[in-house]
Amino acid sequence: WKCSQCWRMDPRAAIPVIKKKLVGSVKALQKQYVSSDTVVTSEDGDANTMCSALEAVFIHGLLAKHIRAETGGKRKKSAHQKPLPQPVFWPLLKAVTHKHIISELEHLIFVSTDVGRCRAWLRLALNDGLMECYLKLLLQEPARLCEYYQPTALLRDAEEGEFLLSFLQGLTSLSFELSYKSAILNEWTLTPLALSGLCPLSELDPLTASGTELQRKESLDSISHSSGSEDIEVQHSGHKTRRNRKLTASSLSLDTASSSQLSCSLNSDSCLLQENGSKSSDPYRSEEPMSYDSDLGTTNADDSDPSLQE
């Protein structure tokens, strides 16, 4: 990306920017949702900001060999639109993810790139209440992190890693139903790239107005067919029925690329979902059928105007 070649940001300077966005968005979500049973969806602006900040956590300090010039997606770009750098860390995420989750993400109909799988993984981890657990597993593998990140990266800073783990515990008070099957996830947006230091923060200014448009597009794309299933995921703002999910330590620790670390770390209470059915899932992700009553087209002759009857 041309701008990133002529502009360099101190990697350390990006860390407080990411943390500020993350803390602010999570506090706003807690204030709005913690005292209610309403789930957090992709239609919430603070939820999208939180996702961008978490994406920036994984992008920050990524080695150049893991940053592609193009994502490989099929979305058409206008002539004046500059291509954005496309960081990819999907193989790293797969190392700590259960194989049935990997299979689901790799067979989503509308998510067709590794960038999209990274972004879908993050939202699905939030839905399942496993973000803290996944992060703990990654931090326990410094050798693997060295293959992907510079020494100054946020994920390779021990103190920052401890901060993230303790802070993510606050997400246990929230229930998420974020859209993770949308084609809009196939490419990075500017916000997480700017927060992580891959492009200037000033580039976000002209896109402030378009943030609402992006949020609206994500909510429209949230109605999508699930891969390998005949179910259709339908989200309504703030009123979606909770899905009962159940992931136990034994089921999550089976058949992963790093099963020894996973089964060991899952003995900790912090990696178990303690509220029955509120955030965990069963491996088959069955969608609870939803019924809709239509009030359209039910007018009868008795209720009609006499002149219309004639």
Automatic annotation (TrEMBL):
Question: SMART domains, per this entry?
Answer: RUN
Compositional bias, Basic residues, is annotated for 237-246
Q: Which residues form the RUN domain?
A: 41-183
Segments of skewed composition (Polar residues): 296-310
- Region entry Disordered, spans: 215-249, 271-310
Among Pfam families, the record links this protein to:
RUN
Q: What is this protein called?
A: RUN domain-containing protein
**Species annotation:** Canis lupus dingo (dingo)
